[in-house]
Design a protein that fits this description.
By secondary structure, the protein is an alpha/beta fold. The protein contains 13 helices and 14 strands. The two termini are 26 Å apart. The chain binds magnesium ion (MG).
C-alpha cells in the first residue's frame, strides 16, 4: 500500500452563528488593550479537512482547527510531498520525516497541527486497511464505555447558567466544566463575579458531581494566586489553563499552591513539550489535543509518559481522534464532551463537518468495535453552509 494523493481543503462556516453572550470566557487577549471584544481571536469558524488516498483505494480523513489556511499551506507546500509514494504503515518514519523536515521553522503551533492532520489521516487508513477501529491498533478497549464531562457553561446570566447545568444534569452527566468570565482587568468586582458563578453552578449540580473550572489563559500568576484559595471550598476537580501556555513556572507554582489540581496542555505540542510539563510538575492533568499535539503517533507516546508519571490524560475537546486514544489508555479516565449546539465559539463545528461523532448518553460515549479507522465520514447535510477552499 502506497500513498497516492493528499488533499487539504478549508471548510469556512458561513451558516447561522450565535454571538457569544455576556462576559462569555476570559482569554489571553483580556490583558491586552483592545478596541474590540477579545473573544473573536479564539473563535474557530473554519477547519482544514485532509484526505489521503492510497493506491488500493482507501481514503483516510484527518483534520486540523488551528489557523486552517496556514495549516493547508504547510500541507500543500511541504508535507504532502514528504508522504506521497510512501507506505502508511511506516507511520513513525513518516512522522519523523515531517517533524525533522520542518524543524527549522516548525516544532510547535500550526506546523505541528498540520503534521497532526496528516498523521490522523494515516491512522484512519491503517484502521480501514485491516478493518479495525483505530483504538484496536493502540491497545484496544480498556473501558466498557468512556465517561465524559459536559463542557460549555460560558459566563452568561447566572440563572441561564444554572438552567443549562440542570438540563444536562438531568441528561445524566456526572461532571461539568464552566468558564470564568472575569480576569485581572475586572478588579475585585470580577473576583466577586467569578466566585458567584462557581457558587451558582455548584448549587445546581450538588457536591456529588465533578466541577471543572476553565480560565482559558485569561488570568495571570498574581491573580490566580489570589483566586485559588478562595475557590478551594467549591472542591473543583481542576482549574484549567490559568496562565498562558509558555508560563510553565507559573503553572508549576500554582500546582503546588493549594489542593486544587492545575490542568493544561491543549496549547502544548510534542512529546518534548509534555516531558517539560511533567518534569516540572506543572500540571496534574494533561490535556493535549491529538489534532494539535502531533497526531496519534505523538499522542500515543505522551500517554505512555503520563502513565509512567501517574498523571491522568483527559484530552481537550472530545472528538473521535481523541476518543480512540482515551479508549485504549488506562491513564485516560474520561473525555471532554462538547455538546452539539448552534455554531457559537466553533467547538460545535466538528458535528457540522463530520458524520460519526458519538453523542453522549447518560454521561458516557461509546465506540463501535466494528467501525474501521477513526469512524468519520464527511457530512453532506451542511455542505451548503460552508465556503470550501480547495
Ligand atoms: Mg480548555
Amino acid at each position: 500500500m502506497k500513498i497516492k494523493a493528499v488533499r487539504a481543503r478549508v471548510f469556512e462556516w458561513k451558516g447561522k452563528t450565535v454571538p457569544p453572550q455576556g462576559n462569555f470566557c476570559s482569554n489571553a487577549m483580556d490583558l491586552v488593550y483592545s478596541k474590540s471584544e477579545t473573544m473573536s481571536t479564539f473563535r474557530f469558524h473554519s477547519w482544514t479537512v485532509v484526505e489521503i488516498e492510497t493506491d488500493n483505494g482507501i481514503v483516510g480523513l484527518g483534520n486540523v482547527a488551528l489557523a486552517p489556511k496556514i495549516a493547508k499551506a504547510i500541507i500543500d507546500e511541504y508535507l504532502a510531498a514528504m508522504v506521497i509514494g510512501e507506505d502508511p504503515w511506516d507511520y513513525e518514519y513518516l512522522w519523523q520525516k515531517m517533524y525533522r523536515g520542518t524543524h527549522a521553522w516548525g516544532r510547535k503551533g500550526v506546523a505541528m497541527a498540520a503534521i497532526s492532520a496528516i498523521d490522523l489521516a494515516i491512522w484512519d487508513i491503517l484502521g480501514k486497511s485491516v478493518n479495525k477501529p483505530v483504538f484496536k491498533l493502540l491497545g484496544g478497549r480498556t473501558k466498557e464505555k468512556i465517561p465524559c464531562y459536559y463542557s460549555k457553561l460560558y459566563r452568561t446570566d447566572l440563572n441561564e447558567m444554572q438552567k443549562e447545568a440542570q438540563t444536562f444534569l438531568d441528561q445524566g452527566f456526572k461532571a461539568f466544566k464552566m468558564r470564568f468570565g472575569y480576569g485581572p482587568a475586572h478588579l475585585q468586582q470580577g473576583v466577586v463575579e467569578n466566585l458567584k458563578s462557581v457558587a451558582a453552578v455548584r448549587e445546581v449540580i450538588g457536591d456529588d458531581t465533578d466541577l471543572m473550572l476553565e480560565c482559558y489563559m485569561g488570568w495571570n500568576l498574581e491573580y490566580a494566586k489570589r483566586m485559588l484559595p478562595k475557590l478551594e471550598k467549591y472542591a473543583p476537580r481542576w482549574l484549567e489553563e490559568p496562565v498562558i501556555a509558555d508560563d510553565i513556572d507559573g503553572y508549576a507554582e500554582l500546582n503546588q499552591l493549594t489542593s486544587i489540581p492545575i490542568s493544561g496542555g491543549e496549547h502544548e505540542f510534542s512529546l518534548y513539550g509534555f516531558k517539560q510539563l511533567l518534569d516540572r510538575k506543572a500540571v496534574s492533568v494533561v490535556q493535549y489535543d491529538t489534532n494539535r499535539v502531533g497526531g496519534i503517533t505523538a499522542a500515543h507516546k505522551i500517554n505512555a509518559l503520563c502513565e509512567a508519571y501517574s498523571v491522568p490524560v483527559i484530552p481537550h475537546a472530545g472528538q473521535m481522534h481523541n476518543y480512540h486514544l482515551t479508549m485504549s489508555t488506562l491513564a485516560s479516565p474520561m473525555s471532554e464532551y462538547f455538546p452539539m449546539f448552534d455554531v457559537e465559539v466553533g467547538n460545535e463545528l466538528f458535528y457540522y463537518i463530520f458524520d460519526g461523532e458519538p453523542v453522549a448518553k447518560d454521561g458516557f460515549i461509546q465506540l463501535d468495535d466494528n467501525t474501521p479507522g477513526l469512524g468519520l465520514t464527511l457530512k453532506t447535510e451542511f455542505l451548503k453552509d460552508f465556503n470550501i477552499i480547495e
